[in-house]
Amino acid sequence: MKITFHEATRLFRLENNQFLYAFFIDGQGYLRHLYCGKPVAEFDYSSLCDFGFDWAKTYLSPSGKEEIFSDNYYSDRSLLEVGSEGKNDKRGSLVAIRQEDGSFLTDFVYVSHRIYFGFPALANLPYAFAKDQEAQSLELTLKEVRSGLLLKLTYTLLGELPLLVRTEVLQNETKNDVEVRKAMSLELDLPDQGYDLLHFYGTWSRERNVERKPLGDGLTIIESRLGRSSHEENPLNILAEKDTDENQGSCYGFNLIYSGDFRMAANCDKSGSTRVLLGINETDFSYVLKPQEAFELPQGIITYSSEGFNRLSQTFHSFIQDHLIRYANAKAYRPLIFNSWEGCYMDFNTDKILSYLKTAKEIGAELFVLDDGWFGKRNSDGSSLGDWEVNQSKIDLRKVIDSCHEQGMKFGLWFEPEMVNPDSDFYRSHPHCSLGHEDSQKELSRHQLALDLSNDSLVDEIAASVNRILDSYPIDYVKWDNNRTIADNYSYHLGKDEQGKISYLLTLGYYRLCKKIIDSHPHIFFEGCASGGGRFDLGSLAYFPQIWCSDETDPVQRLYIQYGTSYGYPLSTMGSHVSKSPVSSYKTKADVALFGSYGYEFDPTKLSTEDKQQLIPNLDLYHDMGNSVIQNGTLYRLRSPFTEGALSWISVSSDQTKAIFLYVTLRKQNSSSRFIRLLGLDPKKRYRNSLDKKAYSGDYYREIGLNLSFWMEEFQSTLVVLKEEDYD
Ligand code: GLA
Fold it and tell me: Is 531 in the pocket of ligand 1 (CB under 6 A)?
């Protein structure tokens, strides 16, 4: 890992063994992008900056003379690190401000830079970190030519990962207010067009479907305006060359350490290049920066792979596990969860939960989670959010926790701290605690309203009421839910000048609440959730090492959801449970759920002996290999349910001594020749597989494959364990 600046050519090189990112400061003071990809030794500037004839290569000097820009600058098509607003370049600006005179003309130029070991820490947003000397950063200061607004732009390399973290802070060191109308976190100008875009779309219970489509001419936008990263789209986006597949070809991955409204804009215009911008959604956005105020933007992540999507995903996975998740024990064994929700919903009492505990324990649960329904007067979703007091007439919480602990299980509880039901004591006693204006009807969703988290004192009050429960009971785990999108964007707490940044402030409020609750309980494991996987993003993962991947627990639907999610997020982050869903056998359900953070969610008292027996093999496997092979292993996707009629993947332990392979059919597949080539094994090691009990070299499995030429029913799963021959 090395960042260098070459004085004579004003060239910055940010590089490690796998990755090189380069740009230079031109004669105008613009940062001119040169390259993002595999390491190369040299750059021919004259070639890289030459786009043939153009009229846009001159400017009018102060003396009124037409002059030629230096360094072959084309004002409408040069590749840049910071696109301008209101100038010749129409590919989309990084930052746009409203000048004092009302114009939007925005143009940043270089002032200074420094290179240092370490990484930038943000005050109010989650950020990427590194241990010891594992990170190096280049911090540039740019100045907006008319207003004087400063942009601190930092690029950070993390060890040998082919990945760049981009951090931006706008600082107003002028004497006037500066209104920021757009502020994106990341810009990448690629010198070509014709890429495919992979984005991850969906809805409730159908998250992160993979769509691959050509980026045609013009502007393509992928966004959320729902107040959270959303079920509908994900901030993860990938650009790939046409022939790129899972194992070969070039691709670029983009993501944002942010959980609120975002926008990815990819522009292919006459320039022949592609500009990618990713950051806070600019719709209805206005941030008036007061003198001496700083505005932190979410960090943007750029990754590159020359070996297809599997390698790109593995880079994201390592980044999340080693540089993002703050929970200290995230890599430790995760106790097998039993969650009460799909078993009894809110219809329970102490006796019922005690009987659940006993039977959950018998089938191997190690952590029992009491889901929604234990507080206020909550027997349906129509009331009590906000009233974080145990409903003593419904549940004897202390007795339940004691019994859980006596049986050797940990105990977890469900909360939804960011929301309120109008039918709650909290709402009745806190006027204007939710978003929305009196003169405009408030729109409910699941009978609830979003609390106004832009109000710090309200955040502190909510944190205190949740913490009261966490500090009064010996709780080991929390499921933190969020069951509606943001609407009625108005806060009684904010002034006229501040309403335009409400969506950003609500996201900061969420992080403030996380800090107040999570950071003060480092012994508790927090799992995120937003009506399932509606907030599966890097911002949340900084606080929650695991997120409930979807409310859909039907294993066939889950194949798609977990497969799509794996493009950007490791298996360890995906909460996945065996449920009562009738579509397949318990074996298939358990096999699908095993590839995630494993758990159960059904009425355990209704499980037949045969069902229980189907759960036993994976229980043993989870104890033995769940942590080393699945949660901390390396994942390779082999067959896509979206395009190949089956899901297949393999996860390999980091020492390459063990692996678990899965193949699940979507349709019945007759016995026909079917050899699946396995990736990730050490070619020189010999592995015995649990299917035909034979041992072959890693090379054999890779080149010839595992023979699955047998009859398969629909939704049949084949799970194969591979262990190095002399592995005990
Ligand atoms: C959301 C979650 C579920 C469950 C319910 C409880 O839908 O995704 O897992 O916790 O809320 O109300």
Answer: yes
Asked whether 481 lines ligand 1 (CB < 6 A), one says yes
CA 179, 182, 186 angle in degrees (round to 5)? 135
Q: What is the mean pLDDT of the chain?
A: 97
3-state SS class at 170: strand
Where is 505: in which H helix or E strand?
helix 502-514
Q: Has residue 240 got a pLDDT over 80?
A: yes
pLDDT band, residue 133 (cuts 50/70/90): confident
CA of 231 to the centre of ligand 1 (A): 14
Residue nearest to atom 7 of ligand 1 (CA): 531
AA identity, residue 169: V
User: Which residue's CA is the nearest one to ligand 1's atom 6?
Assistant: 372
Gap between the Cα atoms of 590 and 363, Å rounded: 13
Q: How far is the CA of 318 from the centre of ligand 1 (A)?
A: 29
Using pLDDT thresholds of 50, 70 and 90, give the confidence band for residue 640: very high
pLDDT of residue 728: 53
Residue 727's pLDDT is 57
Q: What are the backbone dihedrals phi and psi of residue 142, each rounded to the nearest 5 degrees, phi first?
A: -120, 155
In what helix (H) or strand (E) does residue 199 lie, and over which residues does it extend? Answer: strand 196-201
Token digits for 38?
């595999």
Are 97 and 107 within 8 A, CB to CB?
Answer: no
Point out the catalytic residue in the list 89, 269, 322, 481.
Answer: 481
Q: Mean per-residue pLDDT for 188-203?
A: 98
User: By the 8 A CB rule, do 242 and 216 touch?
Assistant: no
606 CB-contact burial (10 Å; exposed 0-12 / middle 13-18 / buried 19+): exposed
Residue nearest to atom 4 of ligand 1 (CA): 341
Q: How far apart are CA 572 and CA 559, in angstroms?
A: 16
Beta strands 525-528 and 546-548, pairing class: parallel
The pLDDT tens digits for 550-570 are 999 999 999 999 999 999 999
- Catalytic residue (one of 551, 554, 591, 611): 551
518-523 contacts: CB < 8 A, separation 24 or more? 518/543, 520/467, 521/467, 521/470, 521/478, 522/327, 522/328, 523/476
CA of 385 to the centre of ligand 1 (A): 13
483 lines ligand 1 (CB under 6 A): yes
Structure tokens at 683: 């070619």
* 414 close to ligand 1 (CB < 6 Angstrom): yes
- Determine if ligand 1 sits within 6 Å of the CB of residue 546: no
CA-closest residue to ligand 1 atom 2 = 531
**340 ligand 1 Cβ < 6 A:** no
Q: What is the DSSP string of 270-337?
A: TTS-EEEEEEE--TT--EEEPTT-EEEPPPEEEEEESBHHHHHHHHHHHHHHHHT---TTTTSPPPPE
| Cα 533 to averaged position of ligand 1 atoms, centre (Å) | 10
Q: Tell me the C-alpha distance between 626 and 336, whole Å.
A: 10
| Dist. CA 394 → ligand 1 center (Å) | 19
Tell how far the Cα of 383 is from the centroid of ligand 1, in angstroms.
Answer: 15
Average pLDDT over residues 102-120: 98
d(CA 67, CA 388): 69
pLDDT digits 0-9 by tens, 34-62: 999 999 988 787 888 998 888 899 999 99
Atom 12 (ligand 1) nearest CA? 372
Mutate which of 344, 369, 372, 535 for ligand 1? The one with the most ligand atoms within 8 Å of its CB, which is: 372
Q: Is the CB of 375 under 6 A from ligand 1?
A: no
Instruction: Decide if 481 is catalytic.
Output: yes
CA distance 334 to 615: 18
Q: Residue 360 and residue 527: Cα distance in Å, rounded? A: 20
Is the Cβ–Cβ distance between 618 and 590 less than 8 Å?
yes
